[in-house]
Amino acid sequence: MVRKAIIFRTDEYATAQDALFAAVSYTIIIFGLVALLFAERVYG
């Protein structure tokens, strides 16, 4: 997952909208993981 997010090639997607959707999805996943790490450090 990390490697796929680092090597994000927009030319592999059919449309620019598909590439944007993938980028937004990766961003949400990364922020979610950061939030979980933060919550574990604060409450755990």
For the structure shown, list the relevant keywords.
44 residues; elongated; 2 helices
Describe the fold and architecture.
The protein is mainly α and 44 residues long. The chain has one domain (2-43). The protein has helices spanning 2-6, 16-43. The protein is elongated, with a radius of gyration of 14 Å. It starts with a helix and ends with a helix. The model has no long low-confidence stretch (mean pLDDT 85). Keywords: Membrane, Transmembrane, Transmembrane helix. The chain crosses the membrane at residues 20-39.
Helix count?
2
| String of helices and strands | HH
Secondary-structure content class: mainly alpha
DSSP strand tally: 0
- Regions with pLDDT < 50 over 5+ consecutive residues? none
How many structural domains? 1
Mean pLDDT, to the nearest integer, reads 85
By oligomeric state, this entry counts as single chain
**C-alpha Rg (nearest Å):** 14 Å
Strand content: under 5%
What helical percentage do the residues reach?
over 70%
Distance between the termini: 26 Å
Which overall shape is indicated by the principal axes computed on the Cα atoms?
elongated
Biggest sheet layout: none
Keywords: Membrane, Transmembrane, Transmembrane helix
Transmembrane segments: 20-39
